């Protein structure tokens, strides 16, 4: 696993400063908001995150199906039952991200990675050992270099050690650190079918833990996202910062519109 340091460009530094200002404003708005406002905000953020997360994986989800699934509706079409189950599990994963981010006892571990994998995978989980990738797939969505299968476990251990003790955290902006984690996790690519979703959930756990809203990378940025993984560096940081800033802007608009008249 390469020791990538995601150097900030002048543009990124400017966007980070804008993100910090907007995040402080949104945090103040959230502190004065009522339960209904905050519940509505997180629901909207979750809907957006699930829709775009699926799009990044090449899965097109009908917004009507997404809303129906998250509203607890029962599908009359048996063909959509697995989809509804998957979308609801995705929602539970995002709720778990928030729960873990709010706990001072949360530490990163291979078991935590596995826990999120079981929530995102469509494959049966039999509980016998870690379902780590055993080969480099010939046909896959992501085209960046990934770890050889025999090195996955050792690379995950290195990643866990690093993120739990990144050295000089004060020298790295929290969002840059979160993007750096995502870059390293995706370079390992431990799971065949869920690495992208797990990696982004864990990145946002780091974001939320530091008081930021989740960085929802839009499906329209799919190619840009893939390219940023192929050439680790400022491009991924810039994309994550822009995505987090878009979440903060959307949250600000929602909270202003949801204020009681």
Write up what this structure looks like.
With 261 residues, this protein is mainly alpha-helical. It has one domain (10-124, 135-257): Fido-like domain (Fic-like fold, Orthogonal Bundle), CATH 1.10.3290. Helix content is 62%, strand content 0%. It contains ten helices and no strands. It has helices spanning 10-32, 35-56, 63-70, 81-101, 110-120, 152-164, 174-188, 195-209, 222-230, 234-257. Helix 3 (63-70) packs across helix 4 (81-101). The longest helix has 24 residues, at 234-257. It is globular, with a radius of gyration of 18 Å. Residues 1-5 have low confidence and may be disordered.
- DSSP strand content: under 5%
- Named CATH architecture: Orthogonal Bundle
The CATH superfamily is: Fido-like domain
* CATH top-level class: Mainly Alpha
Radius of gyration: 18 Å
- What class do helices, strands and sheet pairing give? mainly alpha
The general outline is globular
Q: Quickly count the domains.
A: 1
């Amino acid at each position: 696993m390469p020791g990538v340091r995601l150097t900030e460009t002048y543009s990124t530094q400017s966007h980070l400063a804008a993100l910090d200002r907007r995040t402080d404003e949104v945090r103040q708005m959230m502190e004065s908001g009522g339960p209904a406002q905050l519940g509505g905000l997180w629901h909207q953020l979750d809907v957006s995150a699930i829709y775009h997360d699926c799009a990044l994986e090449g899965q097109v989800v009908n917004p009507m199906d997404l809303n129906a699934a998250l509203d607890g509706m029962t599908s009359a079409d048996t063909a959509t039952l697995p989809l509804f189950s998957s979308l609801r599990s995705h929602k539970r994963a995002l709720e778990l991200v928030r729960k873990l981010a709010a706990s001072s006892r949360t530490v990163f571990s291979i078991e935590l990675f596995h826990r999120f994998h079981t929530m995102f995978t469509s494959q049966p989980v039999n509980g016998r050992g870690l379902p780590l990738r055993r080969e480099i797939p010939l046909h896959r969505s992501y085209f960046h270099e990934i770890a050889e299968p025999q090195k996955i476990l050792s690379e995950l251990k290195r990643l866990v050690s690093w993120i739990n003790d990144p050295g000089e955290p004060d020298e790295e902006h929290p969002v840059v650190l979160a993007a750096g984690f995502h870059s390293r996790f995706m370079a390992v690519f431990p799971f065949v079918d869920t690495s992208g979703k797990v990696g982004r959930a864990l990145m946002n756990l780091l974001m939320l833990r530091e008081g930021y809203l989740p960085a929802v990378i839009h499906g329209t940025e799919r190619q840009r996202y893939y390219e940023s993984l192929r050439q680790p560096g400022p491009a991924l940081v810039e994309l994550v910062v822009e995505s987090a800033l878009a979440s903060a802007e959307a949250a600000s608009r929602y909270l202003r519109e949801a204020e009681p008249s």
